[in-house]
Specification:
By secondary structure, this protein is of the alpha/beta class. Strand 9 and strand 10 form a beta hairpin. Helix 3 packs parallel to helix 5 and helix 5 packs parallel to helix 6. It is globular and about 55 Å long.
Length: 249
């Protein structure tokens, strides 16, 4: 089966010369949920921005399904690889939730009943149908996060890349987010500092540091390696024991 995503020898430096990514190789199989962990400055968000063409690599390739990222394919890659930003406000800018969710499909020339059906489908998927006519700036943090995900789902992507999805959520909002993501039948890459979330949501984990992938394995095994976590400035909450808590499929 063709992987959902393949990254080969990807490198990227910022204009000041800082090497944010260096020779990254990555393969994500269809249907997997994968946690991407690492300290601040490891290159996680930079990698996410490469995956759907927000930033162009200095070298290397990104392939979504059977389609390589290139100038001629960037529109389709952005549809296939849906990026959900850490701050939902970066994605919500229209007067109402319905208009925000419709924005992407409308740019694919969907109109009328077809467009409305796409919006309804996406809002239903995230349990936010009742928010369609609300103003995004009146929503709670958890509601904004769900609506931002709906806006990406409205494009019918093959994969979601979520940058710190639990950031700023209260415990109930975090629980609702986990349930939502567990219920989505779509490949997911979850960039997070929330290690318990990674354990509950993702069977597989990758650790990134200094622009490189430095470790990969089953999430439960990675999180039991205290030396590895310490080495890369990752820390479990006090009293949290991953050896007696199993991630869900």
């Amino acid at each position: 089966m063709t992987p959902a995503l393949r990254v080969s020898d990807l490198s990227y430096s910022y204009p000041d010369g800082y090497a944010a990514l260096s020779g990254v190789d990555l393969k994500i199989e269809t249907g997997q949920r994968v946690a991407l962990l690492g300290p601040n400055g490891a290159g996680k968000t930079t990698l996410a921005l490469q995956l759907n063409g927000v930033k162009e690599p200095d070298s290397g390739t990104v392939t979504g399904g059977n389609l390589a990222l290139a100038e001629a394919t960037i529109g389709e890659i952005r549809r296939r690889v849906g990026l959900v930003f850490q701050d939902a406000n970066d994605q919500l800018f229209m007067p109402t939730v319905g208009e925000d969710v419709a924005f992407g499909p409308a740019n694919l020339d969907l109109k009328g009943d077809e467009l409305h059906a796409r919006v309804a489908e996406a809002l239903l998927a995230v349990g936010a149908t009742e928010l369609e006519h609300r103003a995004p700036h009146h929503l709670s943090g958890g509601e904004r996060r769900r609506v931002a995900i709906a806006g990406v789902l409205a494009m019918r992507p093959d994969m979601l890349v979520l940058d710190e999805p639990s950031s700023g959520l209260d415990p109930a909002g975090r629980r609702e987010l986990i349930s939502l993501l567990q219920g989505l039948p779509i490949t997911q890459i979850v960039i997070t500092h929330d290690l318990p979330l990674a354990l509950e949501l993702c069977d597989r984990t990758i650790i990134m540091d200094a622009g490189q992938l430095v470790a990969e394995g089953l999430t439960a095994e990675i999180l039991q390696d205290s030396e590895l976590l310490h080495q890369h400035r990752l820390e479990l909450p006090f009293g949290f024991d991953p050896s007696v808590i199993h991630s869900k499929p």
